[in-house]
Structures are given as C-alpha cells and as structure tokens.
Amino acid sequence: MGRARARGRKPGRETVTADTPAGQDPGDVLAYRSLSAVVIFLVTAAAGALGDLASKSKVFSQLLDSPAHSTMVIPGLLRFTLSTNPGIVFGLRLAPWAILLATMAAVVAVAVLFATSARRFRWLHVALGMVLGGALGNAYDRLFSYVHLPGESRAHVGEVRDFIDFYPISYPLFNVADILLVVGVCIILLHVFRHRKDPRPGGR
C-alpha cells in the first residue's frame, strides 16, 4: 500500500521519510522538522534584513552631503528623502517600551507560526521570513543607529532610518523593512483566510 502511494505521487512532491508518521502525508509534517522549510524561512529573513540595512546605508551615505537630503527617483512620483522615525512602521508612534515589547512579540509569534505550520506551505514560510527580516532590520536601527542630519541641532539615536517618499500623496516616509512587514502580513492573512477550515495537522 505504501509503495503504491509513493509511485503514484507526481514528480516534485515530497516523499515519505523516516520521520514521517505512518499514514501521514509528508507535506503535513511540521515545518521545523523540514530542512528545506527552515532554509526558506531563514534565508528570506536574512535577505530581507540585509537588504533593508544595505539600502538604508547606501541612501543615507549618499544623501547626507546633499543640502536638501533628497533626490528624485521617479519624477512626479518617488524620491528618496532622509528622515528618522522614533515610532514603528510608516511613522506610527509608540512609547519606547511598547515598541520593544511589540518587536519581541512579533519575533516570537513568527517563530511559533513557522514551527506549527505544515512544511507544504512554502509561501507562508516566505511571508513569515519577510516579517522577521523586516522586524530585525528596524530593530537594528533602534539598537545601533546614529544619524546626525546637517543643519539639525541634535543627533538621532536609536531611531529608524526612512527614505522612501511618495511625495504626491503626502504619505509618511518608510523603508524596505516596512514594505517587508506589510507585504508579509498581507500574505499571512490571505493564507489564514484560504486555509482557515483545513482540518489537517499544521493546516494554518
């Protein structure tokens, strides 16, 4: 019976392994027990955090010497403008202790969601990695950033570096980490909505 099931699988599907309980679809094994799922999650998180920090470093290093601290990217739509933000995503403000608590809670929640999900949900793991990467990118700024914008009387210590400016719509400035957080959360919500009635183990 087990052999017939193995031969009947389509190419590219996961095969039964020694740690897969009898009668359980290999795709239902929890993600933390799958090397490929762990790699997808961690690589996405690392790439997101490093990409965010690299973009901040490059833009800030290039524009700190500009009198306007700004440069046009797409005329009439997008420019890079240097700014720092003591709040959370998209300029939202919270007390420092609340920001730290929210960051820690987000990291724990992401880790738990990943560990308890099924390894077949690759896009969920990518989304969770995006959220973790975004959280780590902004957390780094809160711990280590030091920005002194010319013309200002004080340095900005422990504030998140923002620079993406869609100026025609007067939206708060943001950064790559904010994009990762919002897109990741949206994918997670779509996943939850799609699989909310899935009775299988890890079906969330």
UniProtKB/TrEMBL annotation:
The coiled-coil segments of this chain are: none
From the Swiss-Prot or TrEMBL record, give the protein name.
Lipoprotein signal peptidase
Q: What biological process terms from GO does the record include?
A: proteolysis
Q: Which PANTHER family match?
A: LIPOPROTEIN SIGNAL PEPTIDASE
Alphabetical keyword list: Cell membrane, Hydrolase, Membrane, Protease, Transmembrane, Transmembrane helix
Q: Which InterPro entries match?
A: Peptidase_A8
Bias kind Basic residues: ranges:
1-10
Disordered: annotated span: 1-22
Q: Which HAMAP family match?
A: LspA (MF_00161)
Please give the Pfam families that the UniProt record associates with this protein.
Peptidase_A8
One GO cellular-component annotation of the UniProt record comes to:
membrane
Q: Which GO terms describe its molecular function?
A: aspartic-type endopeptidase activity
> Transmembrane segments in this chain: where?
30-51, 94-116, 123-140, 173-193
Which species is listed as the source? marine sediment metagenome
